[in-house]
Fold each of these.
Amino acid sequence: MFTQDRKSRKRLASGARFTYNDEPYPTRLNFYKDPPPLEISIEEFEQFALDRMQILTTLLTAQMRNLTPEQLDRTMAEAVKKYMPMTPNRTSNVPHGQVMDERRKDHVSHFILRLAYSRSQELRSWFLRAESALFRYRFEKELLKDQLEFLETQNLSWKKVSDDDKRLLRDKLKASSFKIQNVDEETYFEVDFERVAGLVGRRQVYVQAGKAYVPLADQVVLVLDEFKERLSNALEVTGRALPRMDEDDRLMPVLNNINKQYLGREFTTSAIAGEIQAQDVDTLKVHMPLCMEHLHNELRREKHIRHFGRMQYGLFLKGIGLSLEQALIFWQIAFEKLKPDEFNKQYAYNVRHSYGMEGKRTDYTPYSCRYIIQNNAPGPGDHHGCPFRHFSAPNLRATMASHQVDDFDTEDILSLVQNRHYQIACTRYYEVTRAKMLDISTENLKGGAMNGGQGNAGMVASLESIEHPNQFFEQSYLLLKGRNAAAQGQGQQTGEEGDDGLAAEPLLPTVKGQYTYKKAGVQTHTSNDMEY
């Protein structure tokens, strides 16, 4: 797809010391103006894209969760180290070739996702928001020297205010920004005021004759605006050119599926609750996400659910520890209107098939939230799908009320749903309902440390959003088992049973986080882009 001369690649791989200005990536910042001149294999093509997706989704999720700056930095540092390291220029113990390879991956992966996310306005909107957030985060973390070095190479159409003009405007410039101590020593840029509407609206810049005078301290606003404008135009161009690639049977399947990929853990089996029995399922309903709880309730009420519902719920049960033998017992009891021979004839094959014992013997994994949201939308008489995606607003509101979610929490969840942040809404539902299970008022949920006398077991919030129904189940199970262990003064070593008859488990660190719900009523979720 991309090409690069052998001499340049040889220099890149040599690990020798070079001047960064002589290289294609002098800084970690990039406006991605030109396609990367590199060769890349299909395997790298897909892996680079998925690694960048991990970075983008981690950042957007962290921002939606309103993490503290320290938590955000820690979360991003872990993701960057694992998926896309970006070494600063002044790191002495990293070979130069490795630094260039890291920046090459950043460059290539951006263009791969640009191709994948140019197919519709909805996808373009998500990608623009995600990439802009990543660029801003990186820019603000860069040293001022590297920021200026990067900007000097971009030929930006900003007019630098001369010293004479600054002296004439000194009083007005000083009055417009309390952050500037000495106007004479500050660098200012003159730009059209509509390019910095946010700063104008907050009265942080001086405006005269349609021009805004922006100090260097606020340059991130100008830089980000330039980045967004260039990328938005590039996405439109890419979208118009993309149909020419329809006949490429190597790349198009990868591009068409990148945004549908689930990047998290596959819950093939679970040791959290052990190997459960058919009769345990009703007891474990308390830990189920809303989608699975709804399927379970409808199964008990109607004594039957349709194919996609059986697949979604059956694989979920498989993931929490229901064996094939117990699954056959569970479904036969659930379909109590059928005689054993009728069940064996009509449904037993499908149960065995989902466990990889029939047909092509594929060992199917439980569906992720992304899969449930994007595939097989439910029709009349169906009960599968994601309640936050597929329930009507009145139905979802009534469901929240039936789970004792108060009006303010409900409105916050519905706001997230309206803005298509379905998994964040599910995460918020998890936090609110688990807090109530621990008798912790949502008024007291601040910063993740719950002062409800429960110690660590009171930490119901999660740094990560819910991405998988089995993740929801696992976190809830660990949380309440940890509460039981703390209350009884016993841990995993005793093996004694908790309130629901299952052995108490200690709370694991993965359940910690910051509860981000804003009881003050300030809504910060205004994006109309999909979250999943």
Note: The beta strands are 159-160, 188-192, 206-208, 211-215.
Amino acid sequence: MSQTLAMLQPLDLGFCQLKNRVVMGSMHTGLEEEKHGFDKLAVFYRERVEGGVGLIVTGGISPNFRGRLTPGATQLSFPWQVGKHRIVTDAVHQAGGKICMQLLHAGRYGYHPFSLAPSAIKSPITPFTPKAMSLRQIKGTIKDFARSAALAKKAGYDGVEVMGSEGYLINQFICTRTNQRDDQYGGSFEKRIQFALDVVAAIRARVGAEFIIIFRLSMLDLVDNGSNWTEVVALAKALETTGVNLINTGIGWHEARIPTIATSVPRAAFSWVTEKLRREVSIPLIATNRINMPEVIEHILQSGQADMVSMARPLLADPQFVNKAAAGHDALINTCIGCNQACLDHTFKLQRATCLVNPRAVYETEINFTPVTKAKSLAVVGAGPAGLAFAVYAAERGHRVTLFEANGEIGGQLNFAKNIPGKEEFNETLRYFRAQLDQHNVDVRLNCEFSSKDASGFDEVIIATGVRPRQLDIEGINHPKVMSYQALLSGQQQAGSSVAIIGAGGIGVDVAHFLAERTSATLVPEKWYARWGIDTQYQHRGGLVDALETEQPSEPRELYLLQRKPTPIGKGLGKTTGWIHRAMLKLHHVKQLVGVEYKKVDDDGLHIVHQGQAKLLPVDTVVICAGQESNGQLADELIAAGIAVHLIGGVKIAAELDAKRAIRDAALLAAAI
């Protein structure tokens, strides 16, 4: 089968050959700044090479101090900095791989008061106004890029990727949005792209012909006053002439209010623009964004949309992705679900990145599932995220694992999450766990209640029974129109045409989206493009057209989302995805009320007090999303009986539903037990 996969075909760059068409795209891990972090980074990258990746691109490294993203971020500017990079390149080469260092100058995105940009225009996502670069500073920065590339070559890198997209410095020079200069680097399009061309030319002059230069080109800015298609093509052709070997696809500036990599983005949603550019240049192009399964890669490559594909988060999720695809074991791939909760959300909080579905990611030297010398017989109670992860990891180590689940299917809360529009990727997580349970011979017992009498014969019992919805103590809580979010999302009960949702945390927001949009736009790309105002005909600057102000709901409903706290709804949602959820509430005209006191439910609806006034919401359905409680009765029973137990996941801490913490809990226990 492997011979038929386009992703496994080599790519000849003339002076070197890449073993296949899969690039591990740039992702900052946080190890770059940790003490001894490059030792850990070497292990991290080596595992991906051993897993089959053809080419790795590192996280962004600044060519000078002012280009750093944060004051403590890594740069490569001096010979004494070469040594730690050599640790990484040696590890990659020993494993038979190739690696390029990404050169990234933050420009006005620098999160410090020393930032420089083409013009002194503050970005909407950083607190500092940059200083406009002098001509001397521009010339110096070009030299710094070249010096850094030369040092990268000395450190053993096979090439560099020049970050010219996502709204960083080079991208800032290209667009009138951020470049209001009137000298040789501003004004006309030809002058605005001169900085990018000078950087590439200076790098090529320093590193010679036999060194890979990738240019990350912003093919679709998705911001006002971005590049138009004619300009994108002209720059791509100029870059090819200047000496670039590969062009990587950049999509959207960081300040763009259009999602580009979140789970609600359709798979391969932007490969059309790579295909469009591929007709214009002769050097290989790399497609990016929401490419997370082998069939997606194969479609892109076999249909001629791109020459290579870049994946970052999917290779966090499963370092063995390529090997599994080559062996035809797609079902065993731990698929990236695009949640951003443990990777990008961590990065933007200056924490070490990892992965919700793979807590070993970026912790390869700290979390390992080594074979046991003496196998134990373990009972795992509950087949939600924590129970599933523990069962797989413990069985992988060689323990004999029996997994008990009271319901008729595995998955726990994942079975509710997968039904939310835009969260369909959780189906892949469930598929992965089913395959892994079978692969590791876990004895799965569904529809099986576990009690203390079942504990005999097991060395230890792991309780992963999760949570149950918290009940509200208000009059009429047992009225027929009241239901839990679990009953709604599982299909046990149906909502009417007017719904009050009590609780506006992550679950409440998801329920509102579920009720407003039963046909997911994620599965209908044309609908998704129209929703966000993406011009797939590319007739407008930045690839933008007017986004929809509202959508006709799949099932017209009047929706109220209610919160006790007076703070804005959605404040506690994910740092990189919360704004998307808030935009969906607005799009679907969900009425949002905060500072609400709940009084009673009766035939007339839900009685509340809002802003000191008694109000009646005349709804026919009330959905309770008011938090969770630990489902811990069994644990109490077993402990009382003197049985050795371990608690993981929601049963241990019944806060906001948190699959990231649940799976990490499971991994840590499985590695130690």
Note: The first strand starts at residue 11 and ends at 12.
Amino acid sequence: MPRDANRGRLRSHEACLNCRRKKTRCPAEKPACSSCVRLNQPCLYTPTPKGSRSGPSADRLAYLEEKVNLILSGKGSSPHDQVTNRPHEIPEANYSISSNPPSNEFSGNVNEPFLLGFGYDDSKNHTPSRVSHSLELYFQYCHRQPIWCFDREEVKDPSYISEELVCSIITLTARFSQDRDEIQQYGDTARTLVMLRIANGTVELETIESLCLLSYSAFLDGNGHLGRFHLGLALQLCRSAMLDLNSTYGIECPASERKKRLFWSLQSLEQTYGQIGGILSVPAEVLRPFYLSTGSDQPLENIEHQPPPLPNDSIGCDSSRDIGIWNLALHFGWVWSRVRTYVFDCAQSKLKEPWRHDSMYAMVLSDLTELENKLSLCHRYDSVKFYERRPDELRANRDYWASWLKLQFTYHTILTVLNHPFLYIVASQYNHKLTIPNTFWRRSSEVVMLHATWIVRMIDMVSEKKMRLIDPFFGHAAAIAATVHLYFCCAADPRLKYKSKTDFAKCRRFLKSFVSFSPACESLDLILDKMTRIASGSEKVDFDWEPSKIHLSIPLMWDVLQINCSSSLEEAPYAGLLHPSLAPVHFTDDKDTSSSTLEVIVAMSPEITVNTADGGAAAHMPPSIPRVASAPATPNTAFGDKLVAPADSLMANTPWLWTDPSQFVDMETLGYPESESTLGNIDGFSTWWDFGNL
């Protein structure tokens, strides 16, 4: 029989804080109930103030003075002070730290009596079954993808999870259920509870974990400003607790592994979504000694200033010397953060000739190659044979395969972005004295096509195995690969043109599979829609589209490469964080994505004669820049010429690039496929699969 609403609220008022947290019946004896006496734990009640916020007080000043007295005396507040009553205000803190009982880490007492004393009616807002369901969704979709804060056994009893962490878990996972409308509600509540923890000086590890989950949720929503705020706050709390120092973990404690997982989860988010180029941003180069050095290379004299050790991760490892797959994905994510800095410098016209030994291009390639030495044989593509695994086997071991796919996508995306033709076309336009050598054009064009195609092959395998990926980084990788295939859609060779259109459609279809739960990916998909219309000069692109030239929108290309997508927050990018009076003025300016374009011709002679006497350098003609009127120039996009990219030798040297025509999917039907694989006959792709993989 349903419980009467008034009776439920009365019981919530009478129960002590311990019984409320455990959701058990409270005898309600005072000063201590028999249940707490039996368990030998402090029994605390939430006192009710004389005033009530349900009706305005005759003297507001007197009411506030009463609240201050409650704070100073260490007494609680009224359960009527509901967080939802005043959603834009943080309830006044009214808990004395001295009343917090001693507790062991992550025991049931760590949450008492702080959070449940603010009228947060947990019996009304979430039931145990709701919390358990949210935890199931978390471990199905978010665990180690990429964040790894807690394991299943650490949250097996939901009643011992802090309220702010419960609300953060529901906020993150509601998008995967029918309760999506509750994301905002629980997100606001979680932020309020976290800020109350900070205001009262009672921040715990679960509080920082809550910020980690809230940050990831904001990045999924495309609210990068709010996500970076949560991420920066969590990192600052880690510094305050000295969780960022190796010396902190010298003393054994039950939560040391959980602390390490939290710290490196925050680093993983920072690598992918952190602010680039700001004065307050920590350069990625700071962590180079940690990622690239072995244990014997660590400077012992500065060991106290070293980052914490990586968490224990033995899934899929053959020996204790092997680095876990989640940790390896973190290593390659660090290289990806350096690539993001490289793209930022290119956007600011700070490109140093990439073929120079001291260029960032060369250093990133060196770091990436060095990290390959850390990749154990047990994790390599040819060893794990992902393409031979059964879908049920992959789902049963999702903790491993989600991280393995993250590593593979990251590796190929790094090499795709580093060699993206757009970067060097724009650099040539900004600096007319910059001459791109033939050998660099040839090598970079082949490398970018190779790894952009590898991304599509990984997408095909994921689709065939029906493995659902959630991290928006995968959608971003697909969008980057799509821009490469769009570039090659105007190739002279019909095979390359056909292949590029096919792979472009696959990338778009894969990206659309993220739209249902990630507004950030939805925004990225809209950007690609605009780019396609501008490139083709038509509102509709179909199978018969065979362009000889395309127009690349410069602002939109930078948006894709720099993840500048703000979802529905386009009109107010700082929504949920700053008052409009603090919003920077330049965010209100509209970008003209159609006037700032590059007209690109990918010219390729169908017959190439190579003179081997000069080492084959004559196979490629230098890029020519004919004098052709272009779109109106602006101070930031002073492009007065059209660049004709050099011819390439992909036709003669790379037969593995060509796909079976039966695999082509019309661009108008971009739904997420049940199964569509290019791997029907693995032997037929032996040349492809033996080249370019990690």
Note: The two ends are 60 Å apart (CA to CA).
Amino acid sequence: MVGQPDTATVAAARAGDPAAVDRLVAGYLPLVYTIVGRALEGHADVDDVVQEVMLRVLRNLGELRDPAAFRSWLVAITVRQVRERFRGRPPAVPLDEDLRDPGADFTDLAITRLELSGQRRETAEATRWLDDDNKELLSLWWLEASGELTRDEIVEASGLGRQHAAVRIQRMKGQLETARAVVRALRAPRCAELTGLLGAWDGRPGALWRKRIARHTRDCMQCVPAWQGLVEAERLLAGMALVPIPAGLGSAIGHGSLFSGTATAATAAAQAAPLNIAAKAGVPLLQKALAGVLATGVVAGGGAVVYTYNTPAEPITTAAAVASQPPPTTAAAPPPPTPSRTSPSASRKPSAKATSVAPPVTRSAKKGAAVWKFAGSKAALKDVGASWYYTWAVHNNDAPGPAGVEFVPMIWGGDNVNDATLKQAKAEGDTLLGFNEPDLAEQSNMTVEAALAAWPKLEATGMKLVSPAVAYGGDTPGGWLDRFMKGASGKGLRVDAIALHWYGSDFSAASVNQFLGYVDAVHKRYDKPIWVTEFGLINFSGSPKYASDAQKVTFIKGTTAGLQKRSYVERYSYFGLPAVGDSVDFGLYRDGDSPTEAGKAYRAAG
């Protein structure tokens, strides 16, 4: 966060002050470059995406109402541009190691310019082994760990809820740790088996080889030290500076590529002047080129200032009315507000779908949904036939439900154990969900001892208490849940039911019995009713990341049928109801009446 302009600079830039635009661009360009560079690791498109981001930011700056929100808005635009590049025009194939240019490759640049060594260097090299979607998240989390972004900014930029973002970050960190071990194993003296295994490897980092090498190192006595002594990544990244911008980026923009989409000759002439004069005067080309966007009138709307530079210290400004300038055709919108649902009759033409009779909605007392804020949540809860739902909070302010659908509050973590929160939870209903994934550092992150110490306050509400929901290992002797349940029994604490989470990376039909077997094993161990509050098919550490529609439908049909038959299963909720933003590949509803194929299967369940 050091050196970034304040809100007064943002406000002045929005009003058309060229010097403020200069400071804004100079202050935030390293942040944008670092996010894009790490997300598009090893590709030739980094400079192009950075240029697109900055152009879109300046073109839409007049639409930013709150200058204090500028950085969050900027990061959100950056992430969207990265996603557009992956979706619309796949990045180039990474170069072979021997052909990499240290001045162009982002990891090499970071290692060289930040003078990384030891485990910091290993961590930087390990980023090449991450899946593409994890690289995007890594680019944000890395900046959080180094003090440049906040968790709130990551949540807003990624489009994820706070809890979902925490889960994704934890899984990404697990993949990063695996990749660090792979980097170590490849640098260390190799055993004969690993040498033979690598005979078919083409030298390019990838998910398949990451898994193969990691699997070998875990089982090999000679190679297993690669996993030992790994310092926590956050400790390695704390205080690490942003990666300096390569000189080639400014030079490329100086040749005018930034303005290839402008509309008129007058605009082009106004842009060319600051570029040429800035080049002669030695002013940083990138900053002056971007500042020239003011000439198009797209920063503050009509009436912006047109200006050129003689020297860095003496801008020559002239007032010019540019109200007749047509709006830019490639402008990006600021982060979208919460969408409002429109009438189907106003937005859709009559179709066979609209006139057909929908299958009857099945409402089981067991069937629920894990919900975060999205347009149409109330209608979707009704359409899917949920009897209950939760939001990982003690209230449902962001996702109010329809009449007749029970909301179940949750005490998410230790910080939420206070009189005011517990009072609110008690006002919401009769059942209280315990802490969310306390066994994960990126979730509620509680020790068994801390959870046991807080539990009497939950018990004092008089509500039915469902145990903390561990991320994994609920049936493992000596695991987090096992120690919690033994501790509760020893202290005479009440736990009325067990909460479980389960995610499968095997997308075959076998996943149904894998999941149900886990549920059975946990019930057998504790002999208590079961609440499955999150379950689904997501591969957090490999590829493909998500199951196909057919695989999800098979899984949902099989698992819900099994859960319905098990008398000891009191409630279950698929993860999750929204299929928007980053959840489009696994969620159930795009809006209030548009279920995905998985949503249709879940609607029919129960």
Note: Residues 89-104, 250-357 have pLDDT under 50 and may be disordered.
